[in-house]
UniProtKB/TrEMBL annotation, chains A, B, C, D:
Annotated GO MF terms: nucleotide binding; oxidoreductase activity
Name of the protein: Myo-inositol 2-dehydrogenase
UniProt organism field: Zhihengliuella halotolerans
Gfo/Idh/MocA-like oxidoreductase N-terminal domain segment(s): 6-123
Domain GFO/IDH/MocA-like oxidoreductase as annotated: residue spans: 132-251
Coiled-coil positions: none
Length: 344, 344, 344, 344
């Protein structure tokens, strides 16, 4: 309580940048010291609301000597350079997913990240959701015996704008990447990927040769099988479920109810209001907990923040899924965990 | 299996008589030996479908020497005389509820029933419902500690015909009587009754000065409190729930689903089809188990059949509720269990 | 947004005072200007955390000229005098329930409250719970037709300290009073009360001649019947449910889940973690919304804050229930709504 | 009602044969005329209980002239010859799944079945389950818009004996075959199969090189994707769920509860008893409805019985899944529906 707040520089003030700015402002152990955005008006508005100085120059903010840590929420193509600059400046980083759409760029930075004296964390917020985290802890505690199957259903309420789809890297790198990391939250060492995608309803996907519907199967080195079901739309609201099936039982995460009220009539009974709108509502607690973990990481305390290696692994799985779904059949992957101490 | 079937004479072939005839025909240990109804066509049709001889004379059937037991499903005013004739003939009886609408007639027959060499069972079918019976067994096994509150919700889908309401004895003697017995299934020694009734929607109730809506509170000698919620209609289907609340937990009986299917749309999620239509569907298993218990009783085996005393107790509670709801305030009752060996 | 914050003086810094202090501090339209408590250390600690000056003298705070409104969260016996002083000072009041344990003192203040130029609101927070408020709005919108039965289950996790029971005024005035107000939220004009209480498990209740278990039935002037089920303990957690049964359907409020996770094993399926601990968690949103309504009231805007008359009506029902449960049978009540303009 | 009963000859009196014998005996429109089993004692016991003559010679029973139809429930290797003999004898056939483990034998018989004057139905009982059938009808009625994803979870309570595994044809041909048919119940024209299998817990699977855990993905010609999750064991009981996800909503089939009772304690709330033991309980209604459909087929009435072609299609999918899961990647399939009139 008496320790100084962690001074954070936020880069990027789009939708997810706003989430992080609000989380920093609400956290008693953090302080929004600076905000950078090439659209400087966005930086100014965010700083006015949540604190800190505003700039259009992220590099200057990183080099300012006023920061204890950097939070990168700018567009994906900027991530690698900003991570690089931050670790050079000796600042711990929390970077939004994905690291980059190109695994070569990710790999090129890898030696520098490994050699750095500061940690690089990846923004896989769902690991910090109380329900998913509880299931993982209870699986680890043996409540369902050996984990045999993991089923993840992840459907967004509505497809993103067509322009976004064009630069997203495709459904696997943009959307399923969260589920790949969730799979690895339970089963880090995935060795095989098989994916099937379809273009059923979204014009953006049609225009850009992407899928709007996909099912992906992963196999862990231990033989456990993961099934991921994705859709870019969901009439019933944000659909985020998980089922861990083990030798002696199963743990299930239901969708979050938006109300405790149900209606029964002659037409139907026990009908509830639709699920939550989107990730800001569903994962509000997770974003706060993600920041707590990053603060602990910055302070050198015990932390569960996912790592740069986790971000790289998720991208490798996304690449494999993309290849599988476009004629590549079943794709073997090697996430290289034998070489990475502590990665699993 | 090799024991002879119990030869049963059925009196009354209305709706509930049909239920019993079908149950007897389907039971490998029972045989429908004779069917009596003053409307002899009803007796003939039932006998043709489920077996046995048909007659319009119940007394002759009872005295025929062809029976091992009698099942009385005729109109309520005939019950006392038919029970009397049956025990005189040395035949065990299963009589539909209520014994009679007049407690004086019930009491007048009591000594004869107590002195009889054959048992008289009452048709409180809900005791044999698997869910209610399971809750009682689990309460007895201590799963929720000492029972403190029992909440019963019992709503019929639709009000009976106005003519029936006029001869029904009122909602407490006709409908709540099942719930009084259910209360005593858990807490036999009720000592206090308080009831509130309203006439809200049913023309039959209005015409005959009856209630269509009622809430009744019972107190057991041990202090446990029972709450009974009744309505003569229910738009969502037959509403039959129970909650046993104890010192260390609670056991709840939900309404029976009519389907495993639920629908989720943008308007509402997890909506299920309405509940069952009525008691024939809801309590089908209970009627079969009720007959099994009666057969065991006839054979002198261990049996859980409710007794004539149970029927009398339920009527005493109904009378007290009627008095309470019509200006009598809280009514003390003495079900006389100190005098009745084994009644609780 | 640009309007000045409402400057609130908080009196009382016990458990519920803390809830209000935190709500005021978190509300962008309110400011904690002063905190009074006869235990001045409590006032100081609260002021240090949430703002404002600290004093042990509530009257001085009220008379300070620094306030726009008063929030009374001190012990019940102080309420009447503090309300009186506040309205004399021309300050709107939000007072915790109950107004007083003695209806005569409540009635004595009534003319002054009615004549006052400022409003007096009562702290019936549950009206502001999103689920209960939604049910009331949906009933009003006709989703279940005419309201016929209202069932409220309200069980605290654990009995209060024995000392508290001794000064609480009894279960009906202390605990059920929330449910009486909830009943009147749906059916303002209650005309009849019948209550049954038992002393089953709590030593405090035994010592002080109170009940720890109670069932209360209310009848509205329109004939609708309310059933309230209370217990001073609940092994499964805070148990707060409501069912509105109408001519064409029903609306139900379930207990709030504490997790989205369920466990299925060979022993039991779909088991969820226990319900919430207590009212602070369950009604967190309600306390915030209650404050919003009070701020609107202070500003002369449209507001749903329950009134002093509502507080008086709930106490009249509690008194009637106490009388009924201690030998008074069914008790007629006249909440005097014909004389109170706008009361429902 | 007045039409003559369909005289059925049953071949095979193992577990599934017993199910059919009981269904025939209980069906008012069917009669068990003869029972054949090479273990003649089984035939005799079944005939003694459910009716008909007993023989160890199935061919003689088929040729007896006493039958209107044949129901084949003998071991899989006998199916093709018995179907052949039956259609030669001009008798309609209901044959248990799978037709055979060898697609060549199935194809060899195909011309004869197509040319036959009598229909051959396949025992895909799950199509007749009220819940699955209701979902299909509601999807067809447009309740969820265009069907985009179908998720099937199908887990047996416990692995079969190791000996059985050895002759079962493997998990895809033995167990998943039901799910392949269920997939085709909704989406007949499957064009692509991808499967992943593991050997995690079952010694029988280990011994015989089979999988005990599998996830299979199918793609329909319309682009809809099916996900099938299988396990040979399930600690929570028979796990049979389905989710149809469409453009405007979803329909879900839950596991069948074995009781209406739930238990809440300080440890866990709303815990229900485990699911049903196995298919006999879960699909009891389905077997009766399957027989009804077959009787209608025999009588030349409108019938929904799955066909020999459906049996062949399921086997083609099982073969493709086996190939995929053993190194074959994604396998294209051609179920030949362009050539088979009315098959979809």
């Amino acid at each position: 309580m008496t320790r100084a707040s962690v001074r954070i520089g936020l880069i990027g003030t789009g939708r997810i940048g706003q989430v992080h700015a609000a989380a920093i402002a609400a956290n008693p152990h953090a302080e929004l010291t600076g905000v950078a955005d090439v659209f400087v008006d966005g930086a100014r508005a965010t700083a006015a609301r949540f604190g800190g100085i505003a700039t259009d120059n992220a590099e200057e903010l990183i080099a300012s000597g006023q920061l204890d840590a950097v939070l990168i929420a700018s567009p994906t193509p900027t991530h690698v350079d900003l991570i690089s600059a931050s670790v050079e400046a000796g600042l711990p980083v929390l970077c939004e997913k994905p690291i980059d759409l190109d695994i070569n760029r990710v790999d090129a930075l890898l030696p520098k990240v490994r050699a750095a004296s500061v940690p690089v964390a990846l923004g896989f917020n769902r690991r910090f959701d109380p329900a998913f985290a509880a299931v993982r802890a209870r699986v680890a505690a043996g409540e369902i015996g050996s984990l045999e199957q993991l089923s993840i259903i992840s459907r967004d309420p509505a497809a993103p704008p067509a322009d976004y789809v064009g630069v997203s890297g495709g459904i696997f790198r943009d959307m399923t990447i969260h589920d790949f990391d969730m799979a690895r939250f339970f089963l880090p060492d995935i060795v095989e990927v098989s994916a099937t995608g379809s273009q059923l309803f979204d014009d953006g996907a049609r225009t850009h040769g992407d899928f709007d519907t996909a099912v992906t199967t992963l196999r862990s080195s231990c033989g456990a099988i993961v099934s991921i079901t994705n859709s870019r739309h969901s009439a019933v609201g944000y659909d985020q479920r998980l089922e861990a099936f083990g030798a002696t039982g199963m743990l299930q995460v239901a969708n979050a109810p938006t109300s405790l009220v149900s209606l029964s009539t002659a037409a139907a009974v026990e009908a509830k209001p639709p699920y939550q709108d989107f990730f800001l509502e569903r994962y509000a607690e997770a974003y706060a907990a993600e920041l707590d973990a990053f603060i602990a990481l910055v302070r050198g305390e015990k932390s569960d923040s996912p790592t740069y290696e986790d971000g790289r692994a998720a991208l490798l799985l996304a690449d494999a899924a993309q290849r599988s779904a476009t004629g590549g059949g079943t794709v073997a992957v090697d996430l290289g965990f034998s070489a990475v101490a502590g990665a699993a």
